[in-house]
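User: Structure please.
Assistant: Input sequence and predicted structure:
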Amino acid sequence: MAAMAAEEVRNKRVVLKRYVTGCPTEEDMEVVAGTARLAVPPGSAAVVVKNLYLSCDPYMRTRMTRNEAPNFVPDFVPGEVMNNCSVCKVVASGHPDFKPGDLLWGVTGWEEYSVIPNPVFFHRINYPEFPLSYYTGVLGVPGLSAHAGLFEVAKAKKGDYVFVSAASGAVGQIVGQLAKIAGCYVVGSAGSDEKVNLLKTKFGYDDAFNYKKEQDLNAALKRCFPEGIDVYFENVGGAMLDAVLLNMRVHGRVAVCGLVSQYNLERPEGPRNLFQLVVKSLRVEGFLVSNYGGEYYRRFEEEMAGYLREGKVVCVEDVAEGIEAAPVALVGLFAGRNVGKQVVAVARE
């Protein structure tokens, strides 16, 4: 590594300019120029990686505000580089388990190159036969969230009636397909006719509706689930959650993965139909995907790779080109501009 010590390269980075109130805009972030050294200090266990694909995820909005209540990850700091999961290639290493050329995924800065002081939480790309970007989605955190939330939290089983909100997104598209594999009846909601069509024709949903065209969500759910809902995979919160609670079956289960409708509100909306939890003996449980790493992830990755090979699971990505496109891509999530998993391609190799 010593021969590379003097090598410096351009390193564009995405930083948060200021804390955000309401809907984020591109102007809340800035792409700044810098440099990176493609070497690690002697004796260090760090690695230097070249970022190939960055993941855009709705939860990042919760980190763009100074939070008084605890969050499961630290808030972003104005003036500092943002971070999230990415797919990357090792270019320099002082760690005995990683060598230059290794393909990994884990949390890096939103930048072209990152220094990882201790890569203990990074995963190898074990199935390079698939597009590398899949490790920001179906083979990464969104796919793992779908699997753990559906089977470990909601305990979905054959014959269940399953409803998925934000069903065409990174997590939702996988939840629906896994539920169908398990023998469930599955309905999803999405925010455009194009996405509804995708749910029915691409992801195998039994039915779907455009929530923006429904004047009465309660009526829409009764139409799709005349016998009620056993499992609700919650991604949005707000009015949809209220309507779902009215349509749950006795002993129904709600797995809370996200609440994207609430992230831009200064005062989040509280659910109004909580008494349904008592009336119907419902169980509502939130979860963090970080609790399902280790051996659970290894089993999931092998299972999902098999489904992808067999064509039982497909995924749709929305790929923005270049790190300069990252702010636009992230903001677009909250306007519903993306179709499928939003990814930023920083470098293609």
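Residues 22 and 265 are 6 Å apart (CA to CA).
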